[in-house]
Design brief:
By secondary structure, the chain is mainly α. The strands form two sheets. Strands 2-3-4-1-5 form a five-stranded parallel beta sheet, sandwiched between helices. A three-stranded antiparallel beta sheet has the order 6-8-7. The protein is elongated. It is built from 46 helices and eight strands. Strand 3, helix 5 and strand 4 form a beta-alpha-beta unit. It folds into six domains: about 180 residues, P-loop containing nucleotide triphosphate hydrolases (Rossmann fold, 3-Layer(aba) Sandwich); about 70 residues; about 100 residues, Orthogonal Bundle (Arc Repressor Mutant, subunit A), CATH 1.10.10; about 120 residues; about 130 residues, Alpha Horseshoe (Serine Threonine Protein Phosphatase 5, Tetratricopeptide repeat); about 60 residues, Arc Repressor Mutant, subunit A (Orthogonal Bundle). About 0% of the residues have low confidence. Helix 21 packs antiparallel against helix 22, helix 41 packs antiparallel against helix 42 and helix 43 crosses helix 45.
C-alpha cells in the first residue's frame, strides 16, 4: 500500500475536462506564483483537478511528483521523508537517506526537466511544524518547479504574505464549482433538458452531488422525482443521494462497503483481513461501476479508494446498523497493518477499536524499545501518547520502551528513577552477564545507554567487555531482528570515538551507516551524521565537520524538531568546537550557549566541551570573571547531582581557567577538591579516559608545571599525550601536545628541540584551519614561529604560518605595565608592522589610507625612540608591546 502514497488516488477518465480551472491553477493571480493552494471541503473534485493539471503538463515533458498525505505526516520529519520518497518514485533524489528541505529544492532545481510537486489530502498532514515546513518549501521553490497543494482546510501559513509576495495563489470552493455547462455535461444521460436544468440548479455546481445524480440515473432512478427542493443543506442533499445509490446495491455489496468504510484505501488482502472473507476481489471489481465514488487506484495489487464523503456517509450507516462491530473491524485492520510493519496506521486503528490494550499488544509484538531504532524517537513518542499511561506502567516492556525514548531524546532525567526500579524488579543487576531472554537483552541494552552515553552513568568509562559481549549477542540475532545491532552499534561508536583512535572510529562509523541505510533505519541517520562530524573534528577536518553538523542543524530547524534535546545539544557543541578551533570565538560561544546550564541528561563530553571551551573563549573575549562564575556554578551543580564524569571534566576546566587568570592557589584548590591527580595518573592507560579529559588534564598540569618552573615534568606529560594523539590520528590534540612539548623544551634551554616540535605542530594543522592551538600556547614560542615562517619557502605551508602569525598578533594583549604607551590604533599598526607588511598592504588590512599609516608610524617611532621600522619592531618586542 505504501507506493499508493506516490500516485493519484483517482483517475480523470470520464471526468469533465475543466481547462478553465487548469489554467487558473497554473497561471492565476498572482501570475508569477509557482505554488497553488486548492482549498475546499470534500466533494469538489480537487483530486480529479490535480490529475488533469498533471496531465496537461505531461504534454510539456514536466515530471509529476505526487504525494498523498496521511495523519503520520503531521510529524514534520515523516512529511519530509515522504516528500523525498515521492521525488525518488519520480526518478529524482536517488540514493539519499539524509536530507533537508534545501536538498529537496536543490534536487528540483537540478532536474533536467521541469517538475510539478502535487500534494493531495494535505488536511491529514496539517500541523504547526509541518505547515511551517510547507511554507519554507513554497518560499524556496526553484523557478522550473511548480507546487500544487490540495486540502479540505487551509494550512496555518502566512497566506496573505505569500500571495502579496507573489509566491502562492489560492483557489477555493466557489471557484471549483462546476459551471452550468459543465454540470449539464455530467448529466447528459438524463436527456430531458428541463430535468437537466432542474438538477443543475439543485446541485449548485457541487461536483460530488452531480456525480451521485448521474449514478442514480445509471441505476434507473430519476433525481427530479425526489423532493430535493425541500432539503436546505447541501450536505443533506449529498446524504440523501448517497442513500439512494447505496439502496440500489445488493445487500452483500452494501455490507462490504460499510465494513470497508473504516479504511482510506483498500487492497484485496486488507479487505479480506477486515471482512473475514477471501472473496472480496469480484465484488470490489463490480463496485467500480460507481466511479468516481469508488475509484481504481491500481491493478497490481488491486486497490480501490472510496470517495471521502461517501466513506463518511458509510461510516455513519455502519454505526447505526451495529456499533458493536465497528471496534472489531478496527481491531482486524490494526492487526493487519501491524503485520505489514505499518505501525502508525495500526496504532490509529487500535485507538478506534475500543480495546485500550490492543495498542499496547501491537507495540510489544513490534519489538517495544527496538522501535526507537526503526521508527525513530519522534514516532515512538506519538505511539506512547496513544497508549494510556496506566497500561504502560503495568507492562515492563512498554516502560522500557518509554525509558529508551526519553533517554535518547534527553528531554528530562525522570526516566532514570523508573529505569532503576525496572532493573531492580527484573533481577538483572550491574556486572551480570547478558541474559538470553528478549526482555533481558533489551533491558541490558538500555543499561548500556545509561552507562556508556550519559553523564549520570555509574562508571567513568565504558565497560568494553560488556559492549563486546553485547555486540556478539546482537550479532547472533542479526537474522532475527537487525534492530538489536542497530541499538548497540551507535553506543560502541560513541565509546570508540570518545576513547580510541580516529581510524577505528571511522571503520565503526562506516559499519553503522551501512547497517542503518541497508536496514532502513533512516529516522536515526541524523545521529550517525553528527558522529561523523565529531570524528571529522578529531581528525582535524573542520570543513567536513562544519558541513555535516550544519546539515543536521538545518534539518532540525526545517522540521521544528526541538524535542530531541540530546541531538540538538550535540550538534551545537560540535559546531561550537569547530568555530572555537578556527578562532571564531563569538560564533563558538553562540553555539555553546544553546546548551542549558542545567542539563537534565546530556552526553558528558558534549557538555564538558561546550561549557569548558565556552569559558576559555569568554576569557579571551575579555569576559573572564563571568566565564569563571558560570563554569563554577555548572560544575557545582554537576557535583550536587552526582554527575561524576561531567563534574570531573568541568573541574579540570575550572582549574585551567583559574591558572590562566593567575590564581595559582585557586587552581591547586580545585585540583585537590576534584582529586584530579587521579585523572592524571590514569593517563598512561589509553583506554581509561576520554580524549577530551586527556587533553584537558594535560593542558592543565603541563601549564601549571611550566608556571612553577618544572619543565621536565611538563615535557614528560606533554610528550606522552602528543605521541598517543599522533598514533590515534587526533591531529589537533597532537598539535596542542607538541606545542606544550616546545614550551617545555624551551624552558629546559633546548631551543632546537622546541623549534622541531613547533614545526611538527604546524605540519599537523596544515589544511585544518585550526588556529586556536597556536593562540593558546603563550608568548614564549612566537620568535620560533617567526623564524620558521622566514625559513619556509612560498607555498601552502608558508601561507599557513603567516596566517598563524597574523592571528597571534591580532589577538596579542600587552602586559599591564606597558599598557598606555601607545594608543589602541598605534598598537594595531605596530602589530601589523611586526608582520613585515608593506605600507600599502598594511593600509589595506586596516582600511585606512597609506598617509594615515605613515602618520601613525611617526608617532610610534617617537614614542619608542626608534629611527626606522626594524628598530621600532625590535624595541616593541623588547618592551613586550608585540609578540
Amino acid at each position: 500500500m505504501e507506493t499508493i502514497r506516490f500516485t493519484p488516488l483517482t483517475s480523470a477518465a470520464g471526468a469533465i475536462e475543466r481547462e478553465r480551472l487548469v489554467r487558473l491553477v497554473l497561471g492565476g493571480r498572482p501570475s508569477l506564483a509557482r505554488a497553488t493552494l486548492v482549498i475546499s471541503p470534500a466533494g469538489y473534485g480537487k483530486t480529479t483537478l490535480l490529475v488533469q493539471v498533471a496531465g496537461s503538463l505531461a504534454r510539456e515533458d514536466t515530471i509529476p511528483i505526487w504525494l498523498n498525505c496521511s495523519r503520520e505526516d503531521q510529524q514534520p520529519d515523516t512529511f519530509l521523508g515522504n516528500l523525498a520518497a515521492a521525488l525518488q518514485a519520480a526518478g529524482l533524489f536517488l540514493d539519499r537517506l539524509e536530507f533537508d528541505i534545501d536538498d529537496i529544492t536543490r534536487e528540483l532545481a537540478g532536474s533536467s526537466s521541469p517538475t510539478i510537486v502535487i500534494i493531495d489530502e494535505y488536511e491529514n498532514a496539517t500541523s504547526q511544524a509541518t505547515d511551517a515546513l510547507l511554507e519554507l518549501l513554497i518560499r524556496s521553490l526553484p523557478g522550473q518547479s511548480r507546487l500544487v497543494v490540495a486540502s479540505r482546510q487551509a494550512p496555518r501559513l502566512s497566506l496573505s504574505r505569500l500571495i502579496l509576495d507573489g509566491k502562492a495563489r489560492l483557489i477555493e470552493a466557489p471557484e471549483l464549482r462546476l459551471t452550468d455547462d459543465e454540470s449539464r455535461a455530467v448529466l447528459a444521460e438524463l436527456g430531458d433538458p428541463d430535468e437537466v436544468s432542474g438538477a443543475v440548479v439543485r446541485s449548485e455546481g457541487w461536483p460530488v452531488i452531480l456525480q451521485l445524480m448521474r449514478l442514480e440515473i445509471a441505476s434507473g432512478g430519476r433525481p427530479t422525482e425526489h423532493p430535493l427542493l425541500g432539503i436546505e443543506s447541501t450536505a443533506h442533499v449529498f446524504d440523501y443521494l448517497a442513500a439512494q445509490v447505496l439502496a440500489s446495491l445488493q445487500p452483500a455489496e452494501q455490507d462490504l462497503l460499510q465494513q470497508l468504510s473504516i479504511l482510506t484505501e483498500v487492497d484485496t488482502g486488507l479487505a479480506a483481513a477486515v471482512t473475514g472473507s477471501d472473496d472480496c476481489y469480484p465484488a470490489l471489481r463490480q463496485l467500480l461501476r460507481l466511479a468516481p465514488i469508488i475509484t481504481l487506484i491500481r491493478e497490481t495489487p488491486f486497490s480501490v479508494r472510496l470517495h471521502p464523503l461517501f466513506r463518511d456517509f458509510l461510516r455513519e450507516a455502519l454505526k447505526r446498523s451495529g456499533g458493536g462491530s465497528v471496534g472489531e473491524l478496527h481491531r482486524r485492520a490494526a492487526l493487519h497493518f501491524a503485520g505489514r510493519g505499518d505501525y502508525s496506521t495500526a496504532m490509529e486503528h487500535a485507538m478506534h477499536s475500543g480495546d485500550p490494550q490492543l495498542g499496547a499488544d501491537i507495540l510489544e509484538r513490534a519489538g517495544g524499545m527496538l522501535l526507537n531504532i526503526s521508527e525513530g524517537q519522534g514516532r515512538v513518542r506519538t505511539f506512547m501518547n496513544l497508549v494510556p499511561t496506566e497500561i504502560i506502567n503495568t507492562r515492563p516492556s512498554l516502560r522500557l520502551m518509554r525509558i529508551a525514548q526519553q533517554a535518547l531524546e534527553g528531554i528530562s532525567a525522570d526516566w532514570l528513577a523508573d529505569f532503576e526500579r525496572l532493573q531492580a524488579g527484573s533481577g538483572l543487576h550491574d556486572g551480570e552477564v547478558l541474559p538470553d531472554t528478549d526482555f533481558g537483552l533489551r533491558l541490558a541494552l538500555v543499561r548500556l545507554i545509561v552507562d556508556t552515553m550519559h553523564s549520570a552513568g555509574r562508571s567513568p568509562r565504558p565497560d568494553w567487555g560488556l559492549l563486546s559481549a553485547g555486540r556478539r549477542r546482537c550479532e547472533e540475532r542479526r537474522f532475527e531482528d537487525l534492530r538489536y545491532l542497530g541499538c548497540i552499534q551507535p553506543m560502541i561508536l560513541h565509546a570508540i570515538h570518545s576513547y580510541r583512535s580516529v581510524a577505528l572510529a571511522e571503520r565503526q562509523m562506516a559499519e553503522v551507516r551501512q547497517l542503518y541505510e541497508s536496514a532502513g533505519f533512516a529516522p536515526n541517520l541524523a545521529w550517525i551524521s553528527i558522529h561523523e562530524a565529531i570524528v571529522a573534528v578529531n581528525r582535524g577536518d573542520l570543513a567536513a565537520a562544519e558541513s555535516r553538523a550544519n546539515s543536521v542543524l538545518h534539518r532540525i530547524a526545517d522540521l521544528g524538531e526541538t524535542r530531541n534535546t540530546s541531538l540538538v545539544q550535540t550538534v551545537n557543541s560540535c559546531l561550537g568546537h569547530v568555530y572555537y578551533e578556527r578562532g571564531e570565538l563569538e560564533l563558538a560561544v553562540a553555539h555553546f550557549d544553546a546548551l542549558p546550564q542545567e542539563p537534565a541528561v546530556v552526553l558528558p563530553d558534549t557538555a564538558a566541551r561546550a561549557f569548558g571551551l565556552r569559558a576559555l573563549a569568554m576569557h579571551d573575549l575579555n569576559q573572564s570573571q563571568s566565564a569563571l562564575t558560570t563554569l563554577e556554578a555548572v560544575c557545582t551543580r554537576a557535583v550536587g547531582e552526582d554527575m561524576s564524569v561531567l563534574s570531573s571534566l568541568l573541574a579540570t576546566f575550572v582549574a585551567q581557567l583559574r591558572l590562566l587568570r593567575g590564581d595559582v592557589d585557586g587552581c591547586h584548590q580545585m585540583i585537590a577538591f576534584a582529586r584530579l591527580e587521579e585523572s592524571l595518573a590514569d593517563l598512561a592507560d589509553d583506554k581509561s579516559r576520554m580524549w577530551i579529559e586527556r587533553e584537558a588534564v594535560t593542558g592543565l598540569f603541563a601549564g601549571l608545571w611550566l608556571h612553577e618552573g618544572k619543565p621536565a615534568e611538563a615535557l614528560a606529560l606533554a610528550t606522552q599525550t602528543s605521541d598517543a594523539a599522533v598514533a590515534a590520528g587526533r591531529r589537533l590534540t597532537a598539535a596542542r601536545g607538541l606545542l606544550l612539548v616546545a614550551r617545555s623544551q624551551q624552558g629546559l634551554g633546548c631551543d632546537q628541540a622546541a623549534r622541531a616540535a613547533i614545526q611538527l605542530a604546524v605540519d599537523l594543522t596544515l589544511g585544518t584551519g585550526a588556529i586556536r592551538p597556536f593562540l593558546e600556547c603563550g608568548r614564549d614560542l612566537h620568535a620560533h614561529l617567526r623564524d620558521i615562517g622566514s625559513d619556509t619557502p612560498a607555498g601552502p605551508l608558508h601561507d599557513w604560518l603567516q596566517r598563524i602569525l597574523e592571528a597571534r598578533t591580532m589577538g596579542f594583549l600587552p602586559p599591564p605595565e606597558v599598557l598606555g604607551v601607545l594608543t589602541p590604533r598605534e598598537q594595531e599598526v605596530l602589530g601589523h608592522l611586526g608582520l613585515n607588511l608593506p605600507t600599502k598592504v598594511l593600509a589595506r588590512r586596516l582600511r585606512i589610507s597609506p598617509e594615515t599609516v605613515r602618520h601613525h608610524l611617526k608617532h610610534i617611532y617617537a614614542k619608542l625612540g626608534a629611527g626606522n621600522r626594524t628598530h621600532a619592531v625590535r624595541e616593541a618586542r623588547r618592551r613586550g608591546l608585540i609578540p
